[in-house]
Structures are given as structure tokens and as C-alpha cells.
Design goal:
The structure is a homodimer of 276-residue chains. With 276 residues, chain A is α/β, with parallel strands linked by helices. Chain A has helices at residues 2-8, 21-30, 52-67, 79-92, 101-111, 123-128, 130-138, 152-157, 164-179, 196-203, 212-226, 251-260, and strands at 11-15, 36-40, 73-76, 97-98, 116-121, 143-148, 184-187, 208-210, 242-246, 268-270. Chains A and B meet through helix 3, helix 8 and helix 9 of A and helix 3, helix 8 and helix 9 of B.
Chain lengths: 276, 276
Amino acid sequence: MDIDYRKDAPIGVFDSGVGGLTVVREIMQNLPNENLVYFGDTARVPYGSKSVDTIIRFSKQIVRFLQTKNVKAIVIACNTVSALALDILRKETEIPIIGVVKPGAKVAAEVTKNKKVGIIGTEATVKSGVYTKFIQQYHSDIEVLAKACPLFVPLVEEGFVDNRITSEAIDYYLHEMKQSEIDTLILGCTHYPLLYNRVKSYMGEHICLVNPAHETALELKQLLQEKNLENIQKKEGKIPTYDFYSSDAPVRFKAFANSVLPYSVDWIEHINIEEF
Amino acid sequence: MDIDYRKDAPIGVFDSGVGGLTVVREIMQNLPNENLVYFGDTARVPYGSKSVDTIIRFSKQIVRFLQTKNVKAIVIACNTVSALALDILRKETEIPIIGVVKPGAKVAAEVTKNKKVGIIGTEATVKSGVYTKFIQQYHSDIEVLAKACPLFVPLVEEGFVDNRITSEAIDYYLHEMKQSEIDTLILGCTHYPLLYNRVKSYMGEHICLVNPAHETALELKQLLQEKNLENIQKKEGKIPTYDFYSSDAPVRFKAFANSVLPYSVDWIEHINIEEF
């Protein structure tokens, strides 16, 4: 009985804000029986331009909150936190935790043909050098070109996708990447998949864009199988429960969630995350 | 003796981040004998796209922190907090508190000739309607045109002033304002004075730009005089003390402060503001 209960337990997913919902979307599609608990730290977003100590402190509070929801696994749906805090968070809890960086690095190392890979992300992610480290663990001779694009998060948060400001920002941040010889580009921030078409059309069809969200969902599936925690027993007519929590008021969260997810988000609960 | 001690006490100034340093600059210039304590909530910046409840909760923590520094007055050097939380914060403490909105509204109402005033600020400030309310308290027949410019804060935080992305953003947000008949435009966010020249050259020389920071420093002076709290006794060779605190690591804060202030900021102390 005990083991069945654990299989039925939700997966905890968190991000600095709403960007991690792109990972939730992939989990919903690839693990359709799993119950989910999502936390977005919308009161303190963004993390990417903040210090390592602050990012670690905030993430520990979130892991403590997710533990109160009896999650069976945790997905850090934020590149910045995955890059800077994954090892530290693993020491805080016995619940298995995965991040988005390693899965993204793995797929990029597999798909590049000329062994030249680009990675774009927040200032904190790029500065950490973690993507380069993981990519070169797969193939030490892969050249990695990294670029921080700090304005992409506020642009996506404002819903500016097909917009002249976004065009200028894409050209500003990516023109060197475009002139380089990379054949693969990692969208190393969970907000960036929302700019997928814009980046693709700027960089050209021959560049393979890697969205770590998809690969992370597959890694999560493998992890659950290994630990015998996958919720395979689909009960007739039973749909999984998806619970959403945020640290700021839910208005903007709800609008964003409903534009990203194949699921209607009606209720988001406000959490005072500082108390955890 | 007691009253002398109070006169010598510092003035507390706070903002969601570093933008409030533009108000500090004006206070340093207009009240050169006053000691200052500045707090920037850099771990949770920006406030302008967050909810009223969150902004009030964060501001109350900061006021509690400033009280531990025995300040004799508090300046809310943030338009968003001034617009949404001033009245509530006044109920929390006996220390006199002023914001930046009323001084900015007053000067705009005085300088407009055709009684058409524009105001730009964060989403929260514009949504509050507080600028319009105050301006119309001075002259009820002044027409007010308000526009939220949410990307201006991240642009300034990234140091993007003379940049194509900023040009596009200015045109995107201000083209309607430019076509309107306003003769006065309030820079209703403490980050915006850093875009002063760009906005001035876009809007045209005939438009009077109002920077509430300057007017706020003058209102602070008047308040201190009324309460007999002004630090007029300049002791020979004694320079005032300026203490800086932030909730995130000080690296970015320091660089920004030294680009804004007529004073070399060498030390910024990190504060865990959530504990207040």
C-alpha cells in the first residue's frame, strides 16, 4: 500500500516565476498520469540578475514548501537555480531532485554535428559556466559559445514576442552567435521557448534549437521508472490534479499559465514563501 | 540635548532597488549636512509589476528595518511604493514619512501652461491613478495622460541608455504621448531620470520633464524645518555619514551607485530583509 501511495504523490515543479510552466507543459504531455504541484516565485522574480547567495536562499525556502506537499520528486524548472543551486538543494532533502541544465546539455552534445554549440541564458546561468561543463563532460572537444540575454525575461513577461523591441533585443544579443559557426543553440532559460519562432527565424533554419524542457520531462520519466515511482495506473475517468501556487497575487500568473498550458488554470493559491 | 540628538539622526531613504539613488543624489545636493541611511530591495526588485499586497508587505519590512537605524524621517524614493503604500506606512510608525508622488504632482500642476500633463511610470503606479488624483487636487481642470512603461526599469538596470533597444522602447511607449498635446511630462519612476536625455530628445525641447526626485528633496527640507529636525549645525571639517544597505549582494548596487552619486560608495551592507 505504501508504495502505491508514493506513486500517487505529486511531482513538485518550481521556477522563479512563470517561465517554468514551459517545463510543466512538457511534463503534462509526456507523463500524463502524474499529479503536479507548481510553485512560481512571482513576488521575487527575476532570479537571473541576482547573486548566488540570494538564489540559494530563495530556492531552499521553495524546497521546504514543496516538502509540505509530500512530493515524490522535485523538478527545478529554472535554469538559473539548476545551474547554481542543484547540488546544494540535493543535500537539503532526500526527495530526488533534477534540474534542466544537464538534460539540455546532453541533448545539445548529441545533436551538434560540427561540435560547436551556443547557449543563451540569464547572467547568473551564463556566469556559472555549468552548461559548458556538462556539455564537455559528454564530449570534451565541443566548443561552447555562451551569451547572457538579460532582457529576454522581462520581454517575455510583458508578452512582447512579435514586437520591434524584441527584434532589436534579439539582434543585439544574438548577432555574434549568428556570425559564429555554431549549429546548435540551447535555449537555456525557461522563458526562452516562448521566443522559439523569433530566435529560429533570426538564426536560420539550419540551426538546431534545443529546449531543455522537453529533455527534462524525459529525464523525469526515467528517474521515476528507476525509483519505481511512476504513476502508471491510470484510473478510468480520473484526471490528474494540477495545483498551482505563487508568491505574488495570481492575476498575471493565471493569464500567462493559460497562454502556455494545454489545461485551464482556474485557481492559483498565494503562498507567503518567506515563512518557509 | 535630546532635540540635538534627533537633528543629528539620519534620514532613511528606500527603494525597490537602485533607482531611489536618484533621490539620494538630490538630497545630498539640497541638504548637504544630513546623514543618510539607504536601503535598496535588490533581492526582490522590481516592484512595479507586482501586486499591491506584495508591495505593501515588502515596504512594511523595510520601514521596520529603517526604524532600527533610529531615523528621524523616511523618504519613500520609489514611485510605486509612494503611490500604493504611503498612507498605510504612515499608520505603521510615528516617524514622518514622505513619498515622491505628491511633490512630483505639485510641480507638474504648477509648470503646465496648457493644463495637459503626461505621466509615465510602472504598471502599478499608473494603475493606482494616484498621480492623476494629486494633480487634479491642485487644479481640477488639468487633463492627465498616463502610460506604463514596464521595460524602462530593466533597460536602466542593464545600463542600456544609448542603445537601439532603448530607442525602440521609447518610441513604442511614448509615440502616443508625443502626438498628444501635453506640455509637461512627469518621470514617475525613480529609474527614469537616467533616461532623461533620451526622453527629452524624443519628446522635443518644448516638453517640460518633471523629475519628482528634486521636488521631493525640497519637500523633505521643508518637513525637517517644520518639525525642527533640520541638521543645520555643520561642524567644521565633519562630513555627513551615508550608509547603504541592500537585500542582494552589493556588486551591481555598488557599480550603479557610483555612476549616479556625487560620492564614492565603498561599502554596502547586506541585509536579510525578510527577517524584519
